[in-house]
């Protein structure tokens, strides 16, 4: 009687090696793999169509084209952008989930609130990408033709001076308050009207429900071009190409005005260095790309580039600028 002898099946060497390599790839950190390996999401803490959303789509379009991998924008509005920020801070740090870092969820937020549910250090800065300069505006048929005329009218009768803000602690709150203080207007006596965002504030200005506003270029430009509101000055070192006849704040007699909207890219903590470097290099190249610059101008954005360290330093400087301002205008909590 012959006994059956069990002989284990031996897999081909090539198959074993391939399986081991595949397992190692799954376990390897993002820094050890070619990045990106799959779709990237840029999370935006605000609704589609706003200044932040526009900046994110500029970035995503450029990256998708250059890398041949889908880079999508995911809008997660809520809690003034904090919901999206917290989501990304808690995401896996592999570079495939990033967020559009803006003034409203960074320097201005930390200046106006002491109980933010995350720290500025809880993110990895990648690059500053765009500036969105503040434009001071009045209704198209307003009797005020210059920023100085607005200042004189507000000083003469502050209680009847009505201005619109797109939020209690956003660009408008800081920009208008800074202007009124520079003009010597008693701010507590003025009549401010707070709206849910820049768009409704500017719509109210166009309709004559308020007399003055200081919002971002990307928000105000369509109404200016449509002759619904009139631009008096822009907070920028030079005049904007879309509005060459609009003076800078310095030319208008207020050189101290320096509130600006900005957008950049950040990620969760412990983001691999190669991911940060690859994104920063891509966005630096974009800042010199004529086609990208042309696209940005069409959506009213000024392209800049500051790499990771410079971007972080910029945010710290912004925070130092806005902290005393937030206390001065009474929005520090």
Question: What's the arrangement of secondary structure elements?
Answer:
Blueprint: H1 13-27, E1 40-44, H2 51-67, E2 71-75, H3 82-89, E3 97-102, H4 107-112, E4 124-139, H5 147-156, E5 162-165, H6 171-182, E6 191-194, H7 198-206, E7 212-216, H8 217-225, E8 229-234, E9 260-267, H9 273-286, H10 290-298, E10 302-306, H11 308-328
Parallel strand pairs: 1-2, 1-3, 5-6, 5-7
Antiparallel strand pairs: 3-9, 4-7, 4-8, 4-9, 4-10
Description:
The chain is an alpha/beta fold. The protein has 2 domains: 37-132 and 261-328, Bordetella uptake gene, domain 1 (D-Maltodextrin-Binding Protein, domain 2); 133-234, Periplasmic binding protein-like II (D-Maltodextrin-Binding Protein, domain 2, 3-Layer(aba) Sandwich), CATH 3.40.190.10. The protein has 11 helices and 10 strands. It has helices at residues 13-27, 51-67, 82-89, 107-112, 147-156, 171-182, 198-206, 217-225, 273-286, 290-298, 308-328, and strands at residues 40-44, 71-75, 97-102, 124-139, 162-165, 191-194, 212-216, 229-234, 260-267, 302-306. Strands 1, 2, 3, 4, 5, 6, 7, 8, 9 and 10 form a 10-stranded mixed sheet that branches. Strand 1 (40-44), helix 2 and strand 2 (71-75) form a beta-alpha-beta unit. The longest helix has 21 residues, at 308-328. The protein is globular and about 65 Å long.
Identify the notable features of this structure and list them briefly.
alpha/beta; disordered N terminus; 11 helices; D-Maltodextrin-Binding Protein, domain 2
> Which CATH architecture of the largest domain is right?
3-Layer(aba) Sandwich
What pattern of helices and strands is seen along the backbone?
HEHEHEHEHEHEHEHEEHHEH
How far is it from the N-terminal to the C-terminal residue, by CA? 91 Å
In terms of DSSP E residues, the strand content is 15-25%
What is the SS-derived class?
Answer: alpha/beta
The CATH class of the largest domain, by name, is Alpha Beta
């Amino acid at each position: 009687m012959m006994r059956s002898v069990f002989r284990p099946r031996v897999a081909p060497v090539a198959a074993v090696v391939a399986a081991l390599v595949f397992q190692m790839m799954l376990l390897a950190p993002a820094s050890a793999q070619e990045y990106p390996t799959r779709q990237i999401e840029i999370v935006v803490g605000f609704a589609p169509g706003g200044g932040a959303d526009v900046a994110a789509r500029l970035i995503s379009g450029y990256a998708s084209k250059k890398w041949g991998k889908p880079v999508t924008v995911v809008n997660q509005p809520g809690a003034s952008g904090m919901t999206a920020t917290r989501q990304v801070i808690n995401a896996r740090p592999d570079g495939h989930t990033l967020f559009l870092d803006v003034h409203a969820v960074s320097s201005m937020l930390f200046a106006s609130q002491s109980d933010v549910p995350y720290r500025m250090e809880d993110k990895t800065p990648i690059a500053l990408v765009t500036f969105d300069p503040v434009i001071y505006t009045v209704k198209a048929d307003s009797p005020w033709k210059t920023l100085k005329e607005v200042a004189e009218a507000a000083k003469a009768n502050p209680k009847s001076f009505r201005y619109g803000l797109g939020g209690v602690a956003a660009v408008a709150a800081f920009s208008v308050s800074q202007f009124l203080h520079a003009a010597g207007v008693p701010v507590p006596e003025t009549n401010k009207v707070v709206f849910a965002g820049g768009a409704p504030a500017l719509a109210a200005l166009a309709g004559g429900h308020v007399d003055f506003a200081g919002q971002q270029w990307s928000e105000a430009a369509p109404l200016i071009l449509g002759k619904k509101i009139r631009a008096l000055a822009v907070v920028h070192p030079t005049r904007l190409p879309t509005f060459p006849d609009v003076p800078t704040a310095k030319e208008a007699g207020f050189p101290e005005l320096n509130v600006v909207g900005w957008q950049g890219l950040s990620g969760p903590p412990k983001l691999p260095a190669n991911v940060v470097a690859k994104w920063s290099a891509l966005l630096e190249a974009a800042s010199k790309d004529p086609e990208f610059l042309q696209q940005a101008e069409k959506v009213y954005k000024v392209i800049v580039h500051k790499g990771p360290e410079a971007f972080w330093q910029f945010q710290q400087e912004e925070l130092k600028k806005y902290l005393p301002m937030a206390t001065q205008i009474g929005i520090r909590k």
